[in-house]
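Worked example (supplementary).
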Amino acid sequence: MAIIQAIWEVIDQPLVIFGVINGLLVTASLLVYAERKVSAWIQERNGPDRVGPRGLLQPFADVFKLLFKEDIVPTQANGFIHSLAPTLMVVIAMSTAAVIPWARTPAGDPLVIADIGVGLLLILAMTSISVYGVTLAGWSSNSKYSLLGGLRSSAQMISYELAMGAAAISVVLMAQSLDLFVIVENQNHELLGPFAWNWFRNPVGFIVFAVCALAETNRAPFDLPEAEQELVGGYHTEYSGMKFGMFFLAEYVNLWVAGLVVSTLFFGGYLLPWDPFFASILPPVLLTILQVLFFLAKVAFCAFCFIWIRWTLPRFKYNQLMNLGWKYLLPISIANILVIALGVALFHALGWA
Amino acid sequence: MLTDFLPLFIMVVLAAGLALTLLKLAEWLGPYRPRAVKSSPYESGMDPVGTARERYSVKFYLVAMIFIVFDVEIVFMYPWAVSFKTFLEGGGGLASLAIIGVFILILFVGLIYDIKKGGLDWD
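After joint prediction of all chains, the assembly is encoded as:
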């Protein structure tokens, strides 16, 4: 018995993490299905409906098809980097989810994989690293389309990262912490409920952050890196089989992670509306479960909005994209920092917060 | 303190394991029949002209350099943002805001100069 317990103490954490990674995999395939169904709905088509009930098994069928396809590496391509790029994308997309608090446990601690206290910085750092995946993929393929796609993509991602970091500062100013759990708890308010969440307290920061998060996922209307009409497939023109599948997987995990981060920072994370009220009437364990479910609902809503935007708006031109990033979003978000700082100072002087 | 990062490390290792498994599985299950034409880089069906490792527009370097400047600026603002309320309680809040305002202003002048010079114009 003692041995089993000793073994369990060593492997429980890896097991949970293994479960979370598999959960992310399933989520990504459900998102692929959701994207195809939503796009079909917007365009008055049926979408996938052959594989499994209502086509639910379609993404799994796609994965198996990709596994049995040949992996073509172009001549003179750098084979190692050609494989490294999709690996990097998957690893970074997955590990960002480790710092998101999923709920408040009955003991009052965050339900989180890695409680590191600087979660927000880690997320921003991880987003920066994913630029490497795209750039390396574009460069290593030895194809002109790939190279141009990779360059465009890296320029786009670093441009929007600035505004994103600046918008995150305005959140940090109010919560005075980089710990995502503290940031969520800071949005908890007895009377105001959902209107104490950051989307209402800091609407400019919210809009800038949401636009940048969308741009970081390289999806329409920011899908310049893979603009089919001009660049064929962009940075993954020369990828086939499972390596292409890994880019695809990373894109959908990134979509989900963007939803997670936006909900955590601006939609109160796992908080129920009027959370203290529910905390007073519900048993603690039920509250924790409800918080997880409510968080997932918020993230699913964000993901739905991202899909909706993709199938509604046309793509930007490249100069419009760079103008938006550098001449509008960056100055706006930096001005927003000063406004929020003044607001915090005012509330402090009035003794409200 | 450092042990807090252990789960994150496990997550990275497991995610890397997943990625490598997928790569190996595809290598093992998929066919491998290279042909000269099949593995030539895609160029709309024409024979590729030269190599793709060519020189590219200097604009990308420019964007990268300006990015570094502003990224460092934003990183410098994080410690201030975390301790702003502490400054307020200590009575030095508005002074710290004025200092960070000057800091932002200096870099903002740089951004305006760059925009006026056309460093961020793409056509």
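Two points are worth noting when inspecting this output. Chain A touches chain B through 84 residues (CB under 8 Å). Residues 2-42 of chain A form the longest helix (41 residues).
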